Amino acid sequence: AEYRGLVAASEEQGGRAEIATVTGDNLSVSRDGDALVVRDAAGGQARISGADQIRSNGVVHNIDAVLMPGS
What we know:
- The chain is mainly β.
- It is about 10% helix and about 50% strand.
- Strands 1-2-3-4-5 form a five-stranded antiparallel sheet, with helices on one face.
């Protein structure tokens, strides 16, 4: 499967996207000016400083804060 990218996904959906984590929780991604912001179910948020970095075992998105999994 081809990876279409978090940036592209958010642009295609009006500046918003939902992504699933490895634990099955969902994170919401939205635009804040030129930045992408990701929010967890608990209300925590982080700015994405490096998106769509494809690695051999997945895709990495660098963020500037810790997000917590759902309970």
